């Protein structure tokens, strides 16, 4: 009996299951990814050299000092209670439409002083309020 020696078989890598798995992963990623389109219009805006005219609404500036004193449109208010502030705000707003109250409080002013101005503006029927601030370099 003659036994022949077998040659060792070279291992084969079957790529078909590997490709199937990759296609399934690819299809999954394609379906689960959201695509967003950014539509963009190329436009050229007109330019103007003139300064824009600002129409400012009627303003009442209420200044609150660090020690709790008040001034409405640079006129000092006698006393520090809410009723006197209401009377002064009502007088300042007389005959004006859509008045905006600007509260300009000192950084060291007591919180209660600012709350008194807010309460007085509400009682005077002035619902539009804003706060003045200053940029770090000192420009307003």
Could you give the topology of this structure?
Layout: H1 16-32, E1 59-64, E2 70-72, E3 75-76, H2 82-93, E4 100-105, H3 111-123, E5 129-131
Parallel strand pairs: 1-4, 4-5
Antiparallel strand pairs: 1-2, 2-3
Helix pairs in contact: 2-3
Organism: Rubrivivax gelatinosus (strain NBRC 100245 / IL144)
Subcellular location: Cell membrane
GO biological process, one term: protein transport
In a nutshell, what does this entry contain?
This protein is of the alpha/beta class. It is 30% helix and 14% strand.
Features of the shown structure:
Nucleotidyltransferase, domain 5; 3 helices; ExbD; alpha/beta; transmembrane transporter activity; 5 strands; five-stranded mixed sheet; protein transport; Biopolymer transport protein ExbD; 140 residues
Would you state the CATH class of the domain at 59-131?
Alpha Beta
Give the radius of gyration: 37 Å
Structural class, please? alpha/beta
Question: At the third CATH level, what is the topology name of the domain at 59-131?
Answer: Nucleotidyltransferase, domain 5
The residue-averaged pLDDT reads 81
